[in-house]
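user: can you give me the structure for this one chain? tokens are fine.
assistant: on it. calling the predictor now.
[tool input]
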Amino acid sequence: MRFEQLNPFTVAVYYLCVLGIIMFSMNPLLLCIALLTSVLSAVIGGTADKRAHLFSLAVFLIAAALNPLLVHKGATPLFFFNDNPITLEATVYGLCAAGMLTAALYRLRELSKVMTSDRVLYLFGRFSPQLALLLSMAIRYTALLRVRWRRICDSQRALGLFDDGNLIDAVRGRARVLSILITWTLENGIVTAESMESRGYGTGRRTSYAVYRVHKYDGFVMLVCIVLTALSAVGVYHSKAAFYPALSMNLLNPWGIAGVAAFTLLSVLPLIINGREAIRWRWLLSKI
């Protein structure tokens, strides 16, 4: 069973664990591993195209540059820019914050690919049907609006109304595309609401039907996630990293190393599961 085929609750627990460790840790070594494994998972899993990688790179560079430019605390000045010191401590902190943000963006992009609308309905349908419907429609519209934007841009270019060579024309063209997209979305929302009302939505008690089942393998994967997350959290707690006023890090203690190792396994767990399934599938084919 591939990672994408696991029970939605298991998948949600995994991403909650990974994102929790990433967002609440400023351990430079752990964040470096988080960023590398997130990029590796996106490349192997195909959850990010060239544009997504370029956008993530831009986010990383901007976030890394903002902190030393805006924050001038620290005991080790590297150089002066507009009579303000660019310190080593602020630069390292900016790199860590940028790595945390970029790794989280990659993981959230994976989550949006794996957690489809029917999986969201399965997770929240019994507890809050309205929230489940809202989240599933939001996830659907995120991808739908991107497709419609490209379709409108292509049609505008075909009509000769879109010119990227001139900055003013490009801005006007994109404003026109945005206006068309908003109008199209509002009209579609009205049609969707009328269609739901005509089909009797909200007139009776909501029921739910689940096509997903919890298997023993789901429980095993969930247990592994919880254990690795607990070890990672203990490692984060025992590996203190102070940036101001001077760098002071205690990362290579036994608990810190164990925590980083556990988080590395947690980060590549989907790759391990999919790799195991691919090897098993090839072995079964060889027996035919």
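assistant: here you go. The longest helix spans residues 167-198. The chain has two domains: 3-116+210-286, 127-198.
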